Amino acid sequence: MKFLRRDLEEPNPRVVPEMLLETLSQLDGDSIIVAPGEVPIFITPGIEALGIFKDGKIQSSELLATVRVVRRTNNQQVGKIDIPRGPIGEGKHELTVKVLPLTKDDLVLVLVTDESEAQRVHDVRRDFVANISHELKTPIGALSLLSEAVLGSKDDPESVVKFATRMQSEAKRLTDLVQEIIHLSRVQDSDPLQLAQEVGVEYLIREAIDECQIAADNRTITVTYAESTSSIVLGDRDQLIMALHNLIENAINYSPENTKVSITTSVENNVISIAITDQGIGISDAEQDRIFERFYRVDPARSRQTGGTGLGLSIVKHVAAKHGGEVKIWSVENVGSTFSLRLPIYLPPMESTE
Ligand code: ADP
User: Fold this and answer.
1) Is 308's C-beta closer than 6 angstroms to any atom of ligand 1?
2) Fold type of domain 192-354
3) CB of 333 closer than 6 angstroms to any ligand 1 atom
4) 267: which of 42, 71, 196, 233 lies 20 to 30 Å off by Cα?
5) Could you tell me if 254 and 279 are in contact, meaning their C-beta atoms sit under 8 angstroms apart?
6) What is the DSSP letter of 279?
7) Under CATH, which number does the domain 18-114 receive?
8) Bigger pLDDT: 301 or 147?
9) How confident is the model over 290-294, as a mean pLDDT?
10) What is the distance in A from the centroid of ligand 1 to the CA of 163?
């Protein structure tokens, strides 16, 4: 692990022995050394991505209070703190912090590990595997029955063609399902803010529209995006395009032919909302809470027809949360729906500190 040395403010960083810095850089977790006045004088690179440190300061009042207690009592403290991943949404880093007094110059050492995150990933994966097994059984069962049917009708070419065509569509369904499962597990396991890129929102929207154009043309649905925006967000470009793609594809799939899907953006308090509005079948209030669950579909038969896997919105929700954002829905049955992907706008450091 590379140690990022930061000369933030007084006292002079040289008060920290090189040996200690060496040791910290070898540890698995991240760390901060805090001088009196709660001024962080050293941080490891991962600290910023965890959201504890911004604009030269420790952001968690809970952590600052613990640092003060440790300095006063000279006793170490261990605890858990939750740090929001962004200014909106429910995504959070669940961190274990160990705060220790350093004998020298009243410094305090904060060791941070993301163990709770590892536990959460483990729990999610266990439930996910149970769901997947159930979902895979249907197309696999169908394939097995269809192959028996093909064998049973080998002297009847018409039936063979019929069963083989159905086998093809079940095989496609299986492929789509496996692909979506891979996408979702990647999104759940990754931390897009760790290796974040700066990406233009307009670029993301245009890419996602391009990917859905054939599906839109097939159903004579016009997808419009008439604006332009210079907003930049920080994160994983492919994941963000995938989230928008899923929302646009749903807007197309759950709308009658010859309708419109429109995409607009608005900015408020450094958060950009990308709204995808359709004139489709809508979603009842009761179902609106459930559609973000993995494999949940309002009408499984329709979703099956459109090649839906029931994982699309779950992917969108995870991508949003991992980027410190959220997804909001407005919908009225038989009128249409608006899904808004809301993301914190990236402001270069100079602007954000002013
Ligand atoms: P699917 O692969 O079935 O589309 P999603 O997770 O993307 O799965 O969506 C879950 C369910 O939410 C869909 O099956 C559908 O019932 C409903 N849904 C999603 N988007 C829309 C929309 N724009 N209009 C109406 N219903 C929608």
Assistant:
1) yes
2) Heat Shock Protein 90 (3.30.565)
3) no
4) 196
5) no
6) -
7) 3.30.450.20
8) 147
9) 91
10) 29
